[in-house]
Amino acid sequence: MGTIIDGRGLADKIQHELKEEVAALKEKGIVPGLAVVLVGENGASKTYVKNKERSAQKVGIHSIVDRLPEETTEQALLMKIEQYNQDPTIHGILVQLPLPLHINEEKILQAILPSKDVDGFHPVNMGKLFSGQPDKLPCTPYGIMEMFKHYDVDLEGKNAVVIGRSNIVGKPMAQLLLMKNATVTIAHSKTKNLAKIAQEADILVVAIGKANFITADFVKSGAVVIDVGMNRDDQGKLAGDVAFDQVIDKASLVTPVPKGVGPMTITMLLSQTVSSAKEQMTVVR
Ligand SMILES: NC(=O)C1=CN([C@@H]2O[C@H](COP(=O)(O)OP(=O)(O)OC[C@H]3O[C@@H](n4cnc5c(N)ncnc54)[C@H](OP(=O)(O)O)[C@@H]3O)[C@@H](O)[C@H]2O)C=CC1
Ligand SMILES: Nc1nc(=O)c2c([nH]1)NC[C@@H]1CN(c3ccc(C(=O)N[C@@H](CCC(=O)O)C(=O)O)cc3)C=[N+]21
């Protein structure tokens, strides 16, 4: 029987430390500010945004949530971002993805000042990461790296398999593992013999978006399994991409869904907002 990685518990611990950091900043007259922009009526996005707002408040970050209607034009959204770029009380900007189809996502992400891009999605921050000079990081892979650190998971020389190649999870995850000297394989929907590749993994990170797709036969005995998936069924019940009940018996460490990767994603967002406030303070002086 493996150990369950307590993402919720680790997130609470880090948020508690952040709260103290924020209190110290406030003594100096600085309140970290986060602007979250949500366009349209995506139900899942609404829940995440609510969670982010609640956590931000808990650590004392000033958070603004801008809920814009589905019909918002690209131009109007660009103007909104420009307003936050210019606003000295806002240190972090997050535009919730996915955006409605009539808005060009690339264009929007590029409009955010890299210094306020607490999601780590701006091409400048992506470029820094992939050239080995990381600055702001995508929050989900960042949170997973913090879990490895906290649970003393040694990555050097290990076989790491990342299933999924999105810009927000799979690709940056692979790069962070590579930077820790893991031997990394990235798998995706066109991968042949996925089970065979996954069975070689000492570290298996799954980010595909298919409920309970990864069964015990994909998992090597003693592997560390990280489940990024967030799948909601008709009853609104959450399931990960990993069939937790079978995999827990085979793996050494597994993240649950919920209370695994999700709370760490939010915590890294808050952490990067606090760091950003500190950086912008030194820029001013
Ligand atoms: N917990 C958290 O904080 C977060 C959770 N998520 C969740 O993680 C999941 C993935 O998110 P995201 O990366 O944005 O998703 P995307 O839909 O952007 O990417 C999914 C990836 O999975 C691959 N894939 C799909 N089906 C298969 C399959 N049968 N076998 C192998 N690979 C497959 C796709 O391959 P291809 O490229 O070939 O299409 C693609 O690369 C979702 O459930 C999402 O809700 C996302 C962000 C944060
Ligand atoms: N610009 C942008 N940045 C993101 O970081 C981003 C995004 N867009 N779009 C969507 C995905 C998804 N995501 C999650 C965040 C928190 C939880 C989370 O808090 N999960 C809790 C519970 C969730 C629940 O109960 O619904 C948990 O796993 O315990 C999940 C998923 C961030 N994303």
From TrEMBL:
Residues annotated as binding NADP(+): 164-166
Residues of the Tetrahydrofolate dehydrogenase/cyclohydrolase NAD(P)-binding domain: 138-280
EC number: 1.5.1.5, 3.5.4.9
InterPro entries linked: Aminoacid_DH-like_N_sf, NAD(P)-bd_dom_sf, THF_DH/CycHdrlase, THF_DH/CycHdrlase_cat_dom, THF_DH/CycHdrlase_CS, THF_DH/CycHdrlase_NAD-bd_dom
Pathway(s) this gene product operates in, as recorded in its UniProt entry: One-carbon metabolism; tetrahydrofolate interconversion
Gene Ontology molecular function terms on file: methenyltetrahydrofolate cyclohydrolase activity; methylenetetrahydrofolate dehydrogenase (NADP+) activity
Cross-referenced PANTHER family: C-1-TETRAHYDROFOLATE SYNTHASE, CYTOPLASMIC, C-1-TETRAHYDROFOLATE SYNTHASE, CYTOPLASMIC-RELATED
Family: Belongs to the tetrahydrofolate dehydrogenase/cyclohydrolase family.
Summary of the function given for this chain in its UniProt record: Catalyzes the oxidation of 5,10-methylenetetrahydrofolate to 5,10-methenyltetrahydrofolate and then the hydrolysis of 5,10-methenyltetrahydrofolate to 10-formyltetrahydrofolate.
Subunit: Homodimer.
Full protein name: Bifunctional protein FolD
